[in-house]
Amino acid sequence: MELSDALTITFLGLAVVFCGLLLTAALIYSFSVIPRLLHLRSTGVEGTPATQTQGPPVSGEVLSVITAVLEIERRLYHADPGGRLTINRRKEVSEP
């Protein structure tokens, strides 16, 4: 086998593997795109943004309390700083 044949086979093999990786990445990406397209097609809504309503301004004291509570929740439950924080409200059980 000559050097040119060996290099040709090597580059063709690398190209086949690279194309396989690209097709695999496209397949994985399509798993997230196809459900969104089907949902848009079934609802007929093309992503209209929701209108924002603003309430009365929040006082500085209330804002400080909210910030403190969120920081305590984050530290107690080791929440991800970039993630979503969900606070579950528990109903208090009263003794009869």
List the helices and strands and how they pair.
Elements: H1 3-43, H2 60-77
Structural account:
The chain has 96 residues and is mainly alpha-helical. It contains 2 helices and no strands. The longest helix has 41 residues, at 3-43.
pLDDT averaged residue by residue? 80
Oligomer: single chain
* Class computed from helices, strands and strand pairing: mainly alpha
Percent strand equals: under 5%
Largest sheet: none
Distance between the amino and carboxyl termini: 92 Å
Say how many strands there are: 0
Using the CA coordinates, give the radius of gyration: 28 Å
User: Any low-confidence stretches, pLDDT <50, length ≥5?
Assistant: none
- What share of residues is helical? 55-70%
> What general form does the structure show?
elongated
Number of helices: 2
Write the element-wise H/E pattern from the N-terminal end onward.
Answer: HH
